Automatic annotation (TrEMBL), chain A:
BP terms from Gene Ontology: phosphorelay signal transduction system
UniProt cross-references to CDD domains, sorted A to Z: REC_hyHK_CKI1_RcsC-like
Keywords, ordered alphabetically: Phosphoprotein
Name of the featured protein: Response regulatory domain-containing protein
4-aspartylphosphate carried by residues: 78
Ranges of residues in domain Response regulatory: 28-143
Entry-linked InterPro entries: CheY-like_superfamily, Sig_transdc_resp-reg_receiver, ST_Response_Regulator
Stored Pfam families: Response_reg
TrEMBL record, chain B:
GO terms under cellular component: cytoplasm; cytosol; nucleus
GO MF terms held by the record: histidine phosphotransfer kinase activity; protein histidine kinase binding
Lineage: Eukaryota, Viridiplantae, Streptophyta, Embryophyta, Tracheophyta
Function: Functions as a two-component phosphorelay mediators between cytokinin sensor histidine kinases and response regulators (B-type ARRs). Plays an important role in propagating cytokinin signal transduction.
Domain notes: Histidine-containing phosphotransfer domain (HPt) contains an active histidine that mediates the phosphotransfer.
Subcellular location, principal: cytoplasm
Record's protein name: Histidine-containing phosphotransfer protein
PROSITE patterns hit by this protein: HPT
Amino acid sequence: MMIGAEGASSSKKARISENPVSKNRPYFALVVDDDPMIRRIHSMILKSVGFKVEVAENGKEAVDLFRTGAKFHIVFIDMEMPVMDGIEATKAMRAMKVESKIVGVTSRNSETEREVFMQAGLDLCYTKPLTMAKIVPLLEELQKN
Amino acid sequence: MDVVSQLQKQFIDFSSSLYREGYVDDQFSQLHKLQDESSPDFVVEVASLFFDDAEKLINSMARALEQPCVDFKQVDSHVHQLKGSSSSIGALRVKNVCIAFRSFCDAQNREGCMRCLQQVSHEYTMLKSKLQTLFRMEQQILAAGGSVPLE
């Protein structure tokens, strides 16, 4: 079973089963954005389709969550953040062998900037804001896999 | 027509006008659809966060444009953030001014930027007033024992 950050600090860590993802189990998402409004909106959208959601205010907080043993099915990460931006955080997570799907979410339209973000290790990159139309196919993909 | 029905009609008319006049777009409607019993004040909360954000950013833009030597990259950064926030809440007019504003930042055109600053400040003030009216109307309906019509 995939666990969120709360489980990571518990003395009894859940084990990852052979089939960690199933329709009856919750899916865990991490929203990483320095904007509290975006964190609120994206969390709400994800919760509405059944995700359990954790939030982080910057890339360092996100990386630290993984360092403490938290696991997420999917990470939605902003590109521009203070302390540690999305590009550096994504590189750090991949260097730690984080296997979660990592989805970049950015307001930047520049193809060059998005490509740099993708090269950091994203699975895909969306323009803000996240919408149901963007989230539902991701959830369906998680359920298939 | 009883009081609740009257209030509901006024709400629907006012809400429709916000979309018709381009103050808000479908993203605003999507936020309303996310609101439920477990988060009954979600839209008001998001709007409050947007108001805080927008006011800080507009003030930052004004300060940056007042400098003897304007740092257009800094101004652009603030405009970019406001564009992102306004997109996320569905504040269409504010977003559209930000798009024009960014062009003037790219061109390092101080006068154009000042005009856009005035415009974005105006659009933001109008939007805030309209949304506060909308939220007041919702409260009036609920206080009268009715339910807020879905958009």
